[in-house]
DNA sequence: CGCAAGGTTGAAGCGCATCAATGTAAGTGG
DNA sequence: CCACTTACATTGATGCGCTTCAACCTTGCG
């Protein structure tokens, strides 16, 4: 989401299989924009076909509600994190979060995940400055919580990182 | 929403006519709790009856989607505000927001609204401490932006307050 | 009266922003 | 192949915004 003053807030990172937002399934609302960091495969839905389909197959509605519930829960959690957490906690949670979501997709090996985010993406998602993101990541590396190669990230000390995240 | 450490984050203030959350219409999920500040009139829905009703009357589904869209938009805006605004902006926005929502319901007279919130509620909603909320409100009063009586609030300088809110 | 809830004010300090400089690697055109 | 640029990461110095801690005041209430 881009602010009037040109800054931006990243509200979520989409992983393979995610839909952009349940809201968009019904209305072409564009409070926000979507940007690709990696190569992307995507598909689109025809809104009218989708509505007909939902009326015909109630079990699809149930699946949709589930998505909706999850989306709202994550939105709430995001607000809480942004309002109540320190920089360390926000960044540690972001990493753990991405790790869990990728692991659930079988996209984590050992404790390592692909990590195409630049520091300014982390800053955009956590509401911090790039400079401070850099310091926190350096601190995490110095404490041997994580290790970062060019485009991947390894969690060396899951317990320590979870402690930093206050989780 | 109550945090593990006992603090809480207020995600929204419900006004007459609001539903608690569209999510709750379909699943008894309770990530959050609801607390009454004033006397309250409420009604409840039977989830199964509601689902049947929605299948029979598509125009109801449309209304529901509208609620859903608004709810998500407000959740996003909340995250952005919490991540990117100063204390002054957050508090000014909270006041302007409540004022607009009440005005739309015909519940504002002149520039005055009922305002049953205590300072700790404002703190809970903005992610600030009570002490700082107090200072900001004092500042707003000194600058003649607002005036507060026991349980009401008057916007003396809408333009100035909007400027403080960065809107 | 004593107590609880809410509001106000001051002093001190930390967390993060801001500003600025420096480094490195990859890409681009002459 | 070199000069230049662009993107990203890193580091230091300084300061503001907000928290924290603490005290004190007012009001309403059992």
Task: Explain the overall architecture.
The structure is a homodimer of 167-residue chains. By secondary structure, chain A is α+β, with helices and mostly antiparallel strands. Chain A is built from six helices and four strands; from the N terminus they run αααββααββα. Chain A has a four-stranded antiparallel beta sheet with strand order 1-2-4-3. Chain A is globular. The two termini of chain A are 27 Å apart. The model of chain A has no long low-confidence stretch (mean pLDDT 94). The A-B interface holds A 1, 3, 7, 9, 11, 21-23, 26-27, 29, 31-32, 55, 58, 65, 68-69, 71-73, 75-76, 78-80, 82-84, 126-127, 166 and B 1, 3-4, 7, 9, 11, 21-23, 26-27, 29, 31-32, 55, 58, 65, 68-69, 71-73, 75-76, 78-80, 82-84, 126-127. Chain A binds a DNA duplex (30 and 30 nucleotides) through residues 86-87, 118-120, 128-132, 134-135, 137-138.
What's the β-strand tally of chain A?
A: 4
Shape field of chain A: globular
Going by helix content, strand content and strand pairing, the class of chain A is: alpha+beta
Helical residue percent of chain A? 40-55%
Overall average pLDDT of chain A = 94
Largest interface: A-B, 32 and 32 residues
The Rg value of chain A, from CA coordinates, equals: 18 Å
Low-confidence stretches of chain A: none
Strand order across the biggest sheet of chain A? 1-2-4-3
Provide the β-strand percentage band of chain A.
5-15%
User: What distance separates the N and C termini of chain A?
Assistant: 27 Å
What string, H for helix and E for strand, traces the elements of chain A in order? Answer: HHHEEHHEEH
Largest sheet of chain A: 4 strands, antiparallel
Give the oligomeric state.
Answer: homodimer
Count of helical stretches of chain A: 6
